[in-house]
Design goal:
The structure is a single chain. Helix content is 44%, strand content 17%. With 706 residues, it is of the alpha+beta class. It folds into two domains: 358 residues, 3-Layer(aba) Sandwich (Kinesin), CATH 3.40.850.10; 179 residues, no CATH class. It starts with a strand and ends with a helix. About 22% of the residues have low confidence. The protein binds adenosine-5'-triphosphate. The site of adenosine-5'-triphosphate has 21 residues, from helix 2 and strand 16. Adenosine-5'-triphosphate binds next to helix 2 and strand 16.
Length: 706
């Protein structure tokens, strides 16, 4: 065991016409320091290496080369390109003008006569990037040695995984799965055996054509998905210590981080992409942060497909190289600072690295090889044009061979295992010549001891970090309850019982034992037997079959014909002693029990809270009712009061009017009285005047008389 820091480099690309500016904000010095300075922002940080705008692709490749070479010694290696959209990730990983020049070859790599095509994609690249340079280097270094390389090309688009080599239209998203034998793997992902650098370039070119791209503000040809070009490197021969080496090489060209463009309205699809990209990059940041903080109790690998897929290539057992790409332009200072901060955080990860060595006589390896050989033979048998009779014979031979292998397990020599590996490779080559591809679910046949219902297997703690649903059934990465892949119809009779078969007098598995052959073969056998019995042969009971997934055979899509094999990932096989396994199982069991106990507590708490909540709601409802009644009563009272007041008002009004009338009447009466008094006074005065006149008249008459 040795420990090593992850390596972080920054690559500054030159100013481009698309930047529309001559103002720069990024400065560097000899000490691999980067300064971002634009009056508004200031950041200075130090990295393992800083590549200037004029640095060549060759110089960048030299930086990752030591880690690359180590893959041949059994160390995993992951190279990331991280940065803002248009900052040069694809340029760094694939090469200058890769996307524009990608020729997507329309020729067979091998013509029908088996002659090699002369096409060289490398020549068409202006300055090959890390991936083509690494491929050239690996094949040049292993020319004389015996290594096998398996390649696959994945893209993660909107949190869905697609096989870039098979699924141009992103029709079928793939699932990430994990188990004890294969580790973390992508179900249904094809792996191609590549015999030369040219093989790899063809795959690269084909996959890259299928990548999701879109024009963004900063890049006319922006990659909108994360892509991972994976290479598995395996030694064919065991070394003097009887050890086989293998390593996984991941080249990740991450989708560019991008800010929401407020000025130009973005299409919904673009916004969704942007959200998913930023989310998964943020999870990558969190994982890196969690690894760096040394608190490994919870690392959120499962929060994004990218981190889940790279779980065994992040933090442990892997040399990780992060190349942060930035633009020097002042207009991108904010994005540049955020990229540099991400790179800073990444620097803090301490990576423990160990070799992927596996003893050639390791039981798991033998089981894996046996299983693969069994499956490949089945496929070949189905493909070959032989009649049923021939097929039957071959299956008998295979049955016996497998029987022998089963009994021999544990007493294998290194040479025998190497022979198994050789045989495995040859079978794949034969499939390659036939241009056959298949779904690797077929290979995912549980070993005999696992042929119990899946939940039992989970309980034994065989799936690290496995999640269960409320009924204790295992969940997959998408949170769905797992169904046994190939064992949905698996015999429920429990583990395999090793008793001699009464019909053929050998130990199972044999054709009379349930759970041995696939449906197709079993059907062929059944009909072969029935025709044999019709012809007077001894009648045999055929027994039930496993009902496993039928081998799916289809022609390879596109013109490339190559070897196909399927993901068999199991990288941490060292120290795989039974006691360590038992301890691990125990620890997992305890962990699961703890989780269940915690879940129960949480459920109890939740129930209690629910009850409290219901109570509160009831009280609230009662209070509300009372309040409503009260308000109704008040409304009625108010209405009555209002009525009374109105009545009073009316009365007062009437009274006021009556009073006024009275007053007016009084006034009228007074006026009348006054008038009457005046009339009377006038009358009296007139009377007096008349009397006076009468008096004076009388007196004059008297005087006259006198
Ligand atoms: N070091 C460099 N030297 C010259 N040109 C470069 C360099 N880096 C990037 N470029 C150019 O800048 C443009 C954008 O680069 P590239 O496509 O690699 O960006 P990207 O980070 O992969 O973007 P996205 O995330 O949007 O896919 C391309 O035209 C590329 O050729």
């Amino acid at each position: 065991m040795e420990s090593e820091h992850l390596k972080v480099a920054v690559r500054i690309r030159p100013l481009l016409n698309i930047d529309n500016t001559r103002d720069v904000a990024v400065y560097t010095n000899e000490q691999n320091e980067v300064k971002v300075l634009d009056g508004e922002h200031y950041l200075t940080s130090n990295y393992d290496k800083v590549f200037q705008p004029e640095s060549s692709q060759e110089q960048v490749f030299r930086f990752i080369e030591p880690a690359l070479i180590k893959t041949l010694k059994g160390f995993n290696c992951t190279v990331f390109a991280y940065g803002q959209t248009g900052s040069g990730k694809t340029h760094t990983m694939f090469g200058g003008n890769w996307e524009e020049n990608n020729p997507a070859p329309q020729v067979y790599y091998k013509d029908p006569q088996g002659r090699k095509s002369e096409i060289s994609i490398l020549k068409s690249l202006q300055g090959p990037g890390i991936i083509p340079n690494s491929i050239t280097k690996l094949f040049a270094d292993t020319e004389t040695k015996q290594f096998t390389f398996y390649c696959s090309f994945i893209q993660i688009y909107n949190e869905h995984l697609y096989d870039l080599l098979h699924d141009a239209r992103r029709d079928k998203s793939l699932r990430i799965r994990e188990n004890k034998i294969y580790g973390i793997f992508v179900e249904g992902l094809a792996e191609f055996v590549t015999e030369s650098a040219e093989d790899c370039f063809l795959l690269l070119a084909k996959g890259d054509k299928n990548r999701a791209v879109r024009q963004t503000r900063f890049n006319h040809h922006s990659s909108r998905s994360h892509t991972i070009f994976q290479m598995l490197v395996e030694t064919d021969k065991a070394n003097k210590r009887g050890v086989l080496k293998k390593a996984k090489l991941n080249f990740c060209d991450l989708a560019g981080s991008e800010k929401y463009d407020k000025e130009n309205s973005m299409a919904m699809e673009h916004i969704k992409e942007l959200k998913e990209i930023n989310k998964s990059l943020s999870v990558l940041g969190k994982v890196i942060h969690a690894l760096g903080s040394g608190n490994n109790s919870h690392i959120p690998y499962r929060d994004s497909k990218l981190t889940r897929l790279l779980q065994d290539s992040l933090g442990v057992n892997t040399r990780t190289i992060l190349i942060a790409t930035i633009s020097p332009a002042a207009v991108y200072a904010e994005e540049t600072i955020s990229t540099l901060k991400f790179a800073d955080r990444a620097k803090q990860i301490m990576v423990k690295i160990k070799k992927n060595e596996v003893s050639a006589t390791n039981d798991q390896l033998i089981t894996k090889l046996q299983r693969e050989i069994q499956h490949l033979k089945t496929l070949l048998n189905l493909n070959r044009k032989g009649g049923l009779q021939e097929l039957e014979q071959k299956i008998w031979v295979l049955t016996e061979e497998n029987q022998k292998l089963k009994h021999m397990k544990g007493s294998f020599t290194v040479q025998e295992v190497e022979r198994l590996k050789e045989e495995n490779k040859k079978l794949r080559l034969e499939l390659q010549q036939a241009g056959i591809t298949t779904n690797n679910e077929d290979l995912f046949i549980p070993p005999r001891e696992e042929m119990t219902p899946k939940s039992t297997k989970i309980k034994s703690g065989s799936l690290p970090e496995s999640r269960n649903d409320s009924k204790g059934k295992p969940l997959d990465d998408d949170g769905n309850t797992l169904k046994p892949t190939s064992g949905s119809n698996i015999s429920k009779s429990g583990p395999f019982v090793s008793r001699m078969c009464p019909n053929c007098k050998i130990y199972p598995p044999c054709i009379h034992t349930s759970g041995y052959v696939t449906n197709d073969i079993s059907k062929s056998l059944n009909s072969a037997y029935s025709s044999a019995s019709n012809n007077g042969a001894t009648s045999r009971s055929t027994g039930s079959t496993l009902g496993q997934t039928e081998p799916h055979i289809s022609k390879l899509e596109g013109p490339i014909k190559m070897n196909v094999r399927y993901r068999m990932t199991n990288y941490v096989l060292e120290n795989d002693s039974a006691s360590a396994q038992l301890k691990e199982d125990e620890a997992r069991k305890k962990e699961l029990q703890n989780i269940r106990a915690r879940l129960n507590k949480i459920t109890e708490l939740e129930n209690y809270r629910k009850e409290q909540f219901r109570k509160e709601i009831r009280e609230l409802e009662e209070n509300k009712k009372k309040e409503e009644e009260e308000s109704r009563r008040k409304i009625t009272e108010d209405a009555k009061k209002k009525k009374k007041l109105e009545e009073k008002k009316r009365q007062v009004e009437e009274f006021r009017i009556a009073k006024k009338i009275n007053e007016e009447l009084e006034q009228l009466k007074a006026a009348e009285a006054k008038r009457e008094a005046d009339i009377k006074r006038k009358k009296d005065n007139e009377q007096k005047k008349i009397k006076l006149i009468e008096y004076y008249n009388k007196k004059r008459e008297q005087d006259l008389d006198d």
